[in-house]
Design a protein that fits this description.
The chain is α/β, with parallel strands linked by helices. 53% of the residues lie in helices and 10% in strands. α13 links the parallel β11 and β12. The structure holds one RNA strand.
RNA sequence: GUCUCCGUAGUUUAAUGGAUAAAACAGGAGCCUUCUAAGCUCCGGAUCGAGGUUCGAUUCCUCGCGGAGACACCA
């Protein structure tokens, strides 16, 4: 219905003499829920143009709108409120019709845009630390959100599997483990020998020299060295995969930095030939006028860098996927790097200006508001955070009145959904740009604005519907609605708009915010309006209403990467 | 030093330039013989400071103050 309304608004604006530029952008927006369903502040802008009072102009627009509206349009009330808002309240019937199947995603059409999302990108031989939780969770959510609005999404993981740290690890593996990585080794063992390397290197400088030699051997594809490297990667990916599976994440392509090694020299050569890059202090740089530093693409010792690899990766992705947009879900510390990457890609003719988009997010800080660092040993493994959250949820379920009735499998599965949901929601319900201080109490919170609050909402609905198996007959024209019913419907119609807004800004927290508000409306309904004990007609309506609410909350939680249990 | 981001109740957050700045947590008081109390109802408290643009500023601009990050051979 909104396209029709927007057309009518444009016509009404034309009738009152608004300039043509305004007609094209004429649109109603979501109104603040306490005031109306839709609103337009267009009269405020027009007041100056037409030299009148906003309120009087709004009245004239409304008069013109009313001339063009009939009963079929679904507008219950249109009125001027306050200093000049044009507010629309929708008819119950309209709300009811519009919320049919409103939880469904938009199907990707043949000409749908392709969106690549690069996220998670852990470092091999290091645990997926809690610092990676943000990229992983935000990236997966954005992938789902863009899919929902009809884009073709490619999920890419760009792990750090190359670089000087491998020389150090290989030296230690030679000295400590006889040069082989047995099956029972874990990432923790890699971290341990990596730390040991630095301790020993303090007194034994020759270790650093050997590490550099091993790095060179790795780069020249020395067979024995490559085998150790492969074993390190394999063990690491096994552990990463376990975590991704737990979080419901599956990448379309996992391609580490090492895969681009062969493409990198030609990029540097091309950059030099075209004059985009130049030699400076023995290194190769791409000057970056307007930015704080040039982009360094080759070190003076001939080695390549992160930036060079990213250029190669960008070229590879564009050739393979022909994306419209590439989202890099990477911490805000790397803002300069992505500014450089974008500028260099344009200068080299790899990508146009609109293609690459850095999606920055704030850091995860310790309770002391300081950076969590691996070296200081203060880093926390993602897996242990998840385990702790799940244990917490399990304890709460067990302590509930029916806690004894759960069988072990159900208890386990439900505790997973609640615990992981709580951690995920804690991150996604906040604007991603802010730093997050690690707060166990808040992260594991199962009450208030949290995932379990939303999950509980769906569980309550499922419980009612399970006791009303006979419902389902179509309701063409719903009976007059009580306030609590209308308040749910008014929120349900907003779902697609909210998801579109979330996709446009790449901000999942808008969905979390919306879902919480919807869930509040449901809980109020639940407390005050009976379903099972209502008259047959009301009971039918209410069952269908709450079924729609459950579907939207479930779909919305799915967009955040959160599942809903059958009961809790 | 330069550049970027952030600054909202005690705490953690929300608010496409729009209406009386919205919640959660923490604290206090109520509500289970009625669909799962992980719930509901009620109670106080906030836009860092100074200017500017605007009919209208938490939002945009300038300058301060405070915090974080980045600033060529790490990734």
């Amino acid at each position: 219905m909104t396209p029709v309304l927007h057309r009518l608004l444009a016509q009404a604006l034309e009738a009152v003499g608004a300039p043509p530029t305004l007609l094209r952008s004429a649109a109603f927006e979501l109104a603040s829920l306490e005031h109306a369903d839709l609103t337009s502040p267009v009269a405020f802008g027009l007041a100056k143009e037409l030299q009148g009072q906003p309120k009087a102009i709004a009245e004239r627009i409304v008069t013109e709108l009313k001339k063009r509206m009939d009963d079929s349009i679904g507008v219950g009330r249109i009125e001027v409120v306050g200093a000049g808002y044009i507010n629309i309240t929708l008819k119950d019937q309209q709300l009811w019709t519009m919320t049919t199947s409103i939880d469904r995603p938009v199907n990707a059409t043949a000409d749908a845009p392709t969106v690549i999302v690069e996220y998670s990108s852990p470092n091999v031989a290091k645990p997926l630390g809690i610092g990676h939780i943000r990229s992983t969770i935000i990236g997966e959510s954005l992938a789902r959100i863009h899919e929902f609005v009809g884009s073709k999404v490619v999920r890419l993981n760009h792990p750090g599997d190359w670089g000087t740290q491998f020389g150090k690890l290989i030296v230690m593996i030679q000295d400590q483990w006889g040069g082989t990585v047995s099956d029972d080794r874990t990432i923790r063992d890699f971290v341990q020998i990596y730390v040991q390397f630095h301790e020993r290197a303090k007194d034994n400088p020759e270790l650093e020299i050997r590490a550099r030699q091993e790095t060179v051997k790795l780069q020249s594809r020395d067979a024995a060295t490559i085998n150790i490297w492969k074993a390190i990667c394999k063990k690491s990916y096994q552990e990463f995969d376990r975590l991704y599976a737990r979080l419901g994440i599956h990448f379309d392509e996992i391609r580490g930095e090492s895969a681009y090694e062969a493409d990198v020299p030609s990029i540097v050569a091309r950059a030099l030939e075209s004059g985009v890059a130049q030699k400076s202090e023995g290194a190769v740089i791409i000057p970056m006028p307007g930015l704080a530093a040039p982009m360094l693409i080759q070190k003076s010792d001939g080695a390549y860098l992160y930036a060079t690899t990213d250029l190669a990766a960008l070229q590879y992705r564009i050739n393979k996927y022909h994306p419209d947009t590439i989202l890099y879900v990477v911490g805000s510390q790397q803002t300069l790097h992505f500014q450089q990457l974008r500028a260099a890609a344009i200068a080299l003719g790899i990508a146009n200006d609109a293609k690459t988009q850095h999606i920055p997010f704030g850091m995860l800080l310790g309770a002391n508001h300081k950076k969590l660092s691996t070296r200081e040993g203060s880093s926390i493994e993602l897996e242990s955070v998840l385990d702790e959250a799940v244990e917490h949820a399990r304890a709460i379920i067990a302590a509930r009145p029916d806690g004894k009735e759960w069988n072990a499998d159900d208890l386990n599965a439900t505790a997973q959904m609640i615990g992981l949901g709580a951690v995920t929601y804690n991150d996604l319900s906040q604007n991603r740009i802010h730093d997050v201080v690690l707060d166990w109490g808040r992260m594991l919170s199962l009450t208030g604005n949290s995932a379990p609050y939303l999950q509980y909402c769906v569980v309550r609905i499922k419980s009612i519907l399970a006791q009303a198996p006979e419902i389902g007959s179509e309701i063409g024209n719903p009976p007059p609605l009580v306030d609590q019913e209308r308040e749910i419907l008014r929120r349900l119609v907003r779902f697609p708009t909210i998801v579109r807004l979330s996709a446009a800004t790449n901000e999942p927290h808008r969905i979390a915010d919306y879902l919480f508000d919807l869930a509040c409306a449901f809980h109020r309904f639940y407390e005050h309006v009976p379903v099972l004990a209502a008259t047959p007609k009301e009971r039918n309506l209410r069952c269908q209403l709450i079924d729609r609410a459950a579907k939207v909350i479930t779909a919305g939680l799915h967009l955040l990467g959160i599942n809903v249990p059958e009961r809790m």
